[in-house]
Design a protein that fits this description.
Keywords: Membrane, Transmembrane, Transmembrane helix. It is found in: Endomembrane system. This protein is mostly helical and 229 residues long. The chain has a domain of 155 residues. 83% of the residues lie in helices and 0% in strands. It starts with 9 loop residues before the first helix and ends with a helix.
């Protein structure tokens, strides 16, 4: 018999997409800041490209390891929540049911209906119910730390390629403004996508992403300009 492959849940898919969008966004902005800062100090294209490559490599490793560690830290917190609820259910299971019932009542559900729903859920899955309602964690779902790290490892260099290619391929007199323009467009796209994933206000999130990018590039440009040769 062939074993059926377990499909990723929607939440797991969204988390991987989030890691990809954030990785691309960081790649765009981080490397753009580096190459613009260096370009403000020197017109040597090899120096600019080398700086961008160094930033891309460091950022790729940093993002991947950051996602890996972050997901495992989340898992550790979830395991601790499950352990705590296991103890609570052994010591005083009735108190946990009262907590969940009161929580439902506070949302406007009648107490008889809340009590019935709580009893049925605790009868079938006490640990999962208690953890979900007290910590807003679904212990049956898990995020792939390796998957998030791999997605970040791919998306960061893809994002960082944009500012490096723009600043190295565009003619000297246009390269700075072309790079800034390309980065602004890319940040608008990643900001829009991140807002959609997080159900945030699109216009505000997009503008915030663009403004933070412009501020970052301005600071690194001015810093590089101080050491202009």
């Amino acid at each position: 018999m062939k074993k059926s492959k377990q499909k990723m849940s929607l939440a797991e898919q969204i988390n991987l997409i989030r890691a990809g969008v954030m990785g691309a966004n960081d790649g765009i902005l981080s490397v753009a800041a580096i190459v613009i800062g260096v370009a403000a100090a020197t017109s040597n294209i090899h120096t600019i490209l080398l700086s961008g490559m160094a930033g891309m490599l460091a950022g790729t490793i940093s993002m991947a390891m950051g996602e890996y560690v972050s997901v495992y830290a989340q898992r550790d917190a979830e395991k601790r929540a499950v352990a705590d609820e296991t103890v609570r259910l052994k010591v005083n299971p009735q108190a946990e049911q009262v907590y969940v019932t009161d929580k439902y009542v506070a949302t406007g559900i009648s107490r008889p209906l809340a009590t019935q729903a709580t009893s049925e859920m605790f009868a079938s899955s006490p640990i999962n119910t208690a953890v979900r309602e007290r910590y807003n964690i679904d212990p049956t779902k898990s995020t792939s730390a390796v998957g998030a790290a791999i997605v970040s490892m791919i998306s960061f260099p893809l994002g960082s390629a944009l500012p490096m290619l723009t600043i190295t391929l565009v003619q000297a007199q246009y390269k700075m403004i072309a790079t800034i323009g390309a980065v602004v467009v890319a940040l608008a796209i990643t900001g829009f996508t991140a807002a959609k994933i997080g159900n945030a206000k699109v216009s505000r999130a997009t503008m915030r992403n663009i403004i933070s990018g412009l501020i970052t590039m301005t600071v690194t440009y001015l810093a590089g300009h101080m050491f202009e040769r």
